[in-house]
Amino acid sequence: MKKILPTIPVLILFLNVGYAKAQQQPDSLKTIQSNYYAQQFGLNNAAALKTFQIINLYKESVKILLSKGLSEVELRAKIDLLIDEKNEKLKKILTTEQLEKIVPKTELQKKNK
């Protein structure tokens, strides 16, 4: 019993450190993804971060729609609206060349029709 007692505070310390690391994970993912956009597409840090936020918001919105149990027609219509909204936001911060690199060609062609 005396040998176990000193290890309990050490165990609690490790659990707290692990929990703190898990809480920091989304920020590091945001940084990594923003850096990727900056390097791959020639964006400044502000534009890269904004691009990450727009695309991430789109992905989260699609996940929410998928969980609502909508019909295929309703789902397609709502996703198309989200795509249009995402692309309009990206057009405000990216050049045409950058937009063509980030947005799938099928999405750009659909809008131009």
Topology at a glance:
Elements: H1 4-41, H2 45-66, H3 72-93, H4 96-102, H5 105-112
A few lines on this structure:
The protein has 5 helices and no strands. The protein is mainly α and 113 residues long.
General description of the model:
With 113 residues, this protein is mostly helical. The chain has one domain. It has 5 helices and no strands. The N and C termini lie far apart (75 Å). Mean pLDDT is 79; it is low at 17-25.
SSE succession:
HHHHH
Percentage of helical residues? Answer: over 70%
General shape: flat
**Domain unit count:** 1
Label this structure with key terms.
113 residues; mainly alpha
